[in-house]
Target: Septum formation initiator family protein
Amino acid sequence: MYVLIFVVFAGWMLFFDANSYLIHRELNSEMDDLEEARDHYKREIKKDEKAIKAISTEEGLERLAREKYYMKRENEEIYIIEYEDSIRNQKEYD
Model:
């Protein structure tokens, strides 16, 4: 008799209760996903802070303007050399 009551109680707690094992497993999985997302965003924030710090100086801002926007001074000429494999890699990132 006690075994039957224990089995029914255990079955109820595992599958039907509001705090069942299945719900806990689902919530733990969701928490793991959220923690991974949090870590990803923390890494992105650190990367962005590093980029902001790099362009906060005059030299960093000039470097960004020259490399990304191909800006130049009045008395300079720019020659852009693109290698075949670098063009392919550029298209993969765009």
Q: What stands out?
A: The first helix runs from residue 2 to 16.
